[in-house]
Structure formats: structure tokens, C-alpha cells
Amino acid sequence: MAKRGKITVDREMCKGCLLCIRACPVKILEVDAGINSAGSHPVKIINSSKCIACGNCYEVCPDVCIEVYEE
Q1: pLDDT tens-digit profile of 3-26?
Q2: Which residues contact 19 (CB under 8 A, 6 or more apart)?
Q3: What is the pLDDT of residue 35?
Q4: Is 11 exposed, middle or buried (0-12, 13-18, 19+ CB in 10 A)?
Q5: Which of 1, 7, 69 is nearest to 43 (CA)?
Q6: Which one of 24, 36, 48, 49 has the lowest number of neighbouring Cβ atoms within 10 Å?
Q7: What is the spatial distance between Cα 22 and Cα 36, in angstroms, rounded to a whole number?
Q8: pLDDT class of 1 with cuts at 50, 70, 90
Q9: How many other CB atoms are found less than 10 A from the CB of residue 22?
Q10: 3-class DSSP assignment, residue 5
């Protein structure tokens, strides 16, 4: 059975570097159209049910604004 997971993104800490979007093998992240208080377009989760808790997004995030949980 495939591993299942969940991630959270701190919108206020995210600077919109988009490294996590490229690192996600199941493509559950995209750029948010809204901006945070720093004026950046943060990343948003679009389909959390497909998350496999691989941790790639967490590993590449330079600002440690992503947390990954296994279910």
C-alpha cells in the first residue's frame, strides 16, 4: 500500500521561491494567486489527498515553512 501523508505550508513564511512545486512528484502544490504580508505569492496545496509524505518539499524549502506528516 502506498504511503499517505499531509503537508502544511506557513503562508506568511513562504517567499514564493517555488522549489517545492518542482520537487513534488505528485504535483499537489501550485502558486497562490493571493499575496502574503511580505508581498510574495506563497505556495498553496491543491490536492492534499494525493500526498505521499515523501518529504521532497520539506527538504528543498530554504525557509522551512513546510511540514510533512505521515498518516
Answers
A1: 899 999 999 999 999 999 999 999
A2: 60, 61, 62
A3: 96
A4: middle
A5: 7
A6: 49
A7: 21
A8: low
A9: 12
A10: strand
Cell numbers 530554504: residue? 62
Which amino acid belongs to residue 37? S
Residue 57, exposed/middle/buried by CB under 10 A (0-12, 13-18, 19+)?
Answer: buried
Verdict on whether the full-model pTM lies above 0.85? yes
Tens of pLDDT along 24-53? 999 999 999 999 999 999 999 999 999 999
Q: Identify residue 58 by its one-letter amino acid code.
A: Y
Q: How far is CA 14 from CA 19, 34, 60, in A?
A: 11, 12, 12
Rg for the chain (alpha carbons), in Å?
11
pLDDT > 80? residue 66: yes
SS3 50: helix
